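<context>
A single protein, sequence plus fold
<entry> Chain with its tokenised backbone below
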Amino acid sequence: MQPAAFGVAAFVRRNLSDSLRSEIDKAVKGNDVVVFMKGNKEAPQCGFSRAVVQILQLQGVQNFKTVNVLADEAVRNGIKEYSSWPTIPQVFIKGEFVGGCDILLNMHQSGELEQLLAQQGIVRESQDQ
């Protein structure tokens, strides 16, 4: 019989140390757009990461930081805890978590991403609206 105080939640492993949280905070808050992804923008190492890079480039985002989660297992697991989002890639705009590939694709298709990027001063709004 399992004591009530030792439920499943008691055994959840914490992946995000204070120093790693600080490192992620610095990347997220110090850049207009950050993508935690597999690979980097020059050489994405999965289709979802490639799609996010292509969407940002189509939107006219010239400068964005990428963090290769494959280079550091602590970052790969820590970013999931940081954002409370289970998948990679993860996109942050002006310090706020936006989502992963599917969300970014939906926002791109609806025009919501262009609007958000323009509101944040990252790109100029399209003239054909």
Q: What stands out?
A: The chain has one domain: 17-117. Confidence is low (pLDDT under 50) at residues 7-12. The radius of gyration is 17 Å.
